[in-house]
Amino acid sequence: MPGGRPRGIGNAIANKKRAVGSEILPDSEEKAGWKRFLKSEDEKIAFQAFQLAVRYKHGDPPRHVEVAQNGPVEINVNIRHVGA
After folding, report:
1. Rg (alpha carbons) of the chain, rounded to whole number
2. What is the end-to-end Cα distance of the chain in Å, rounded?
3. What angle separates helix 27-38 from helix 43-57, to the nearest 10 degrees?
4. 65 backbone dihedrals φ, ψ, rounded to 5°
5. How many C-beta neighbours within 10 Å does residue 5 have?
6. How far, in Å, CA of 51 to CA of 49, rounded?
7. C-alpha 76, offset from chain centre
8. Do residues 49 and 38 touch, judged by C-beta distance below 8 A?
9. DSSP, residue by residue, the chain
10. pLDDT at 1 over 60
11. What is the torsional sign of CA 4, 16, 9, 65?
């Protein structure tokens, strides 16, 4: 058996992030946000929201690295102090 977690056991950090996300952004608010941005008068915002919605709908994970003009920019989310 290769190393790592046993099959079916979730990643504790990922589970904590999901729990925090669910707490601070209930499904009803998330849905309202998607509708707002999908109907934005700014076509660029509306199209980017549409692209994200399609990717999420098909199960693509969110991207952790955003590419800027000067190259990749790492986005680091630290939840160590949340709920402490």
Report:
1. 17
2. 36
3. 130
4. -125, 130
5. 9
6. 5
7. 13
8. yes
9. --SSSPTTPPPHHHHHHHHHHHHHS-HHHHHHHHHHHHT-SSHHHHHHHHHHHHHHHTTPPPPSEEEETTEEEE-----TTTT-
10. no
11. negative
- Cβ contacts of 25 within 8 Å, gap of 6 or more: 33
Please write the tens of the pLDDT for every residue from 22-81: 888 888 998 999 899 999 999 999 999 998 888 888 877 666 545 556 666 566 666 565
Query: Phi and psi of 39, rounded to 5°?
Result: -100, 15
Average pLDDT rounded to a whole number, residues 9-22? 83
pTM: 0.50
Q: Which two tokens stand for residue 46?
A: 């509306």
Whole-number Cα distances in Å, 37 to 15, 33, 47, 52, 69 = 27, 6, 9, 11, 24
